[in-house]
Amino acid sequence: MSVKDFPLPDLGEGLTEGEILKWLVAEGDVIELNQPIVEVETAKAAVEIPAKWAGRVAKIHYPEGTVVNVGDPIISIDTGGGSGTVAATEPAANAEGEGGLIGEVKADGRTAVLVGYGPKTVTAKRRARTGAPAGPAGTAPSGTAPAGVKPASAEQATGAAFGSGAVVPGTPVASAPAAASTPVAAAPVAASSGSVLAKPPVRKMARDLGVDLSTLVGSGPQGSITRDDVQAAVNGVSAAPAVTVARGERETRIPVKGVRKLTAANMVASAFSAPHVTEFLTVDITRGMKALDRLREQRDWRDVRVSPLLLVAKAVLLGIKRYPMINSSWTDEDIIVKNYVNLGVAAATDRGLIVPNIKDAETLSLRELADGMTDLVTVAKSGKTPPAAMTGGTFTITNVGVFGVDTGTPILPPGEAAILAFGAVREQPWVHKGKIKARQVTTLGLSFDHRIIDGELGSKFLRDVGAFLTDPEAALLAWG
Amino acid sequence: MTRASSKRAAAAQAAEPDFVQLLTPDGQRVTHPEYSVDFSDEELRGLYRDLVTVRKLDAEATALQRQGELGIWASLLGQEAAQVGSGRALREQDMAFPTYREHGVLYCRGIDPIMPLGLFRGVDQGGWDPIANKFGIYTIVIGAQTLHATGYAMGVAKDGKVGGDEGESVIAYFGDGATSQGDVNEAFIFASVYNAPIVFFCQNNQYAISEPLTRQTRVPLYQRASGFGFPGIRVDGNDVLATFAVTRAALDNARHGNGPTLIEAYTYRMGAHTTSDDPTRYRVASEVEEWQAKDPILRLRKYLESTGLIDEAFVTEVDAYAREEAVKLRERVLTLPDPEPGEMFKHVYPNGSPEVDQQAAEFAAYHASFEGAHS
Question: The whole model's pTM is what?
Fold first, then answer.
C-alpha cells in the first residue's frame, strides 16, 4: 500500500498559488488516471486538474475556497501496493514555488509577481565549496562567487515600501535617533503605502463585485485586503475600521465602474440615438390571473413557478408573431427584422441591472418558457449569468411592478426596437359589466423606437398584449 | 434548448465562408471542380488513426501539464485535420517549418512524439535533427519561422532542386495572429519576388490568444496573397481530405517551380491558447458549441462508417491503440533525464568554437568545485 501526495502544480508559468474552487471527488472515491479531481482557479485561469495516479482518494487536504500555495499537497491518493503505472519520482519539489504577496520578497530572494518569475535578488541556496576560499584565478570564471549578486536582506527590500522614515507627529525631528527606542505609533499600514496589497483571487473577486480596492482598509497581514474585507464592503459593513465617513460630510463619491458604468453607457447610447415614444394602457387582468390559478392547479404544473410575468411574456410573443416589426433593429442602412425572439427580462441584482435573455423564446412551449424565466432570474441573482445570455436580446420586458410602482417610461436596450414595462397588479375599483367592482388592474408601458415603429403599430401591439392579459383564452383562440 | 442550438448551428453553417470542402460536417463526401483525393481504403483508415492518435497524445500532454510534469503545453485540439491533412501531403523530400503547436505535423513526419514534451518539460531544447527529419525546430517567436522557411526555400531554388516531380517544396506553418507580424509580411514579399518554392500554411483558428480574427484583418486572410502577387486559397481546415488535396496541389505547384501559395486552413482552436490561458474569459460557449458540430474526427468517422470502411470494432481498436500510445508517452516523459549542466554548450555551433569550448571548460570546473559534485 502506498499513499502519494499530489502537490498543487504551477498551472501557468510562474504562479505561486491557486484557489480550490471545487472538489470533483471525495475521500474514499476510487479514481482513474487523468480523471478530473479538482477545479482550481489561479490568477490566470480556472482549470480542472486530472488525477496523476489511479487509486483511492485517501485524503483531501483543503476545503473548497482555500487559497493554496504551489507545492503544497492538496490530495493524497492511495495507489495500492505501489503498482501504479507511474514511477514514484516526485518532481524535485521546488521550494521556490511557494507563494507570497505580490511585491513581497521571499526567503529565496524571488519577488512574487502576478505573472512570470520575478527577479532573484539573493542567491540563497549554495552548496559548500570544496577546498580553500575562492578557486584559483586561472580555472574559475572571472568573478567566481556571484560577485555581481548583492545579497540584499529581505528587510532591505520590503522596508522601503512602508515608509519607515515617516515623521511621527509630535516627535521632534531632530531628536529622533536612528535607532529610536520609542515605538513608532502604529498607523494603519496600508494607509502609508502607495499601492494596495491583495492576492490575485481577491482582486478578481473585487473586480467582479465592482469593489474598488483602494477604498478599503485591509485586515490581513501587512494591511493586505482579504476576501472578507471585500465581502464586507459589498454587504455595506467593513471588517476593519474602514474609511469612516466623518460626521457631517455632505457628499459621498462613488467611483463609476462595473455594471453601473456599462448601464450608464448603454442608457446614454440608447436614449440619445433612438427617438423614444412611450404609450400606456391600463387593463383589467382578473381573468388572466384566474387562468394562472387554474394552471397552477394542474398536476404537471405543480412544481413550476407561475407568475403574472409569464402571462406577459406569452402575450408579447404572440404579439410579435402578429406584428414582426416590433422585434426588429435599426441600422442606418437597414431595418433588421428578427425572425427569432431572444426575450430579455430585466433583473435587479446586487451588482446592478442585468438583462439576460431567453434564446429563441418563440419556439418554446409555455412550460419551457416558465422554466427558462425561473432559471434566468435565479442565475442572474447569483451573479453567474454568462456573457452569452446577456447579448443578442431582441425584445425586453422590465417588471417594475415588483417594486410596487404602476408604470414607467423604459429606455430601449441598444439594438432593440421596443421594451415593455409591466407595473404592479392592484385591486382597484373598475367598471365591470356595468357595475363598479374590485378588479385586479395593471398598467403596461411600451417604449418603442419611432424610427421603425409608428404610433399605429405600437398601439396595435400594446392593445393586443392588453387583450391577451384581459382574456387569454379568447386571445389564444383568436390568434394562437 | 437543443432545438434552438441546432438551429443556431444551422444558421452559422449557412454563413460559412467560401472554402474548398470534400467532406461536410455530417460526413457527406462532396466534390470540388478543382480538388480531389484518391485514397485507398487502407489510407483512409490510416488518416482516421492519425487523427485519433494525435488528439489523444495531445490530451495526455495537457494532463501532464496540469499534473505539474510540463511547464506549459500548447494544445492542438480541434486542429487535427489541418495538421494531419497537410502533414500527410508532404513528400519525403519536403521541408517543414513549424510553430510550437504542430504536434500533428511532427507526428506525420515520423518524429518521436516525446520530442516536444522534452522541450516543454524543460529538459531539452527541442532536440530533433531538423535536417534528418526535414522538420525545423519549434519556433516560439510568432511568425519568425516564415522568414527562415522563405530563406531556406530560396536556397532550394538556387540549388536547382525545383522543376520536376522530384523537386523539393517547403511549407511554413503559422497562425492567424502571425499574419499581423512584420516577419510574415516580409516573408511573403521575398517568397513572391524570388518565386520561392514555398507554401504558406496558415491555420486560422480564429484567435490570436484572446484576440478574435476581426482584430487581425478586414478581408479574408487568403485574399491577402493577391496583394503580394501569388495565389491564396481557403480550405475547410476541419476536413482532412480537402486539406490534403489543397496542400498537395500547392506543394506540387511549388516543386515544379511555380512559386508560392498561401493556404488558409479555416479551423477552430477548441482548447485554450496554452495551458496558461482561460478561453472562457473572451469567447462565448455557444461559439465553441457551433464548432463542436464541425469536429474533424467525427465527420471522417461518419463518412467511413456510412461507406462501410470501418465498423465499431475498428473504432474501439483505434481508441485502444491511441490510449496505449498515450500511456507509453506518459511513462517516458516521467523518466526523461534532467540534462547535465554542460549540455547547453553542446549545440551552439555544429563544429564547436574555441570561445564556447573554453566557456564550457570553465563552467565544468566551476561545477566540479562544489562538495558532492559529480565530475
Answer: 0.55
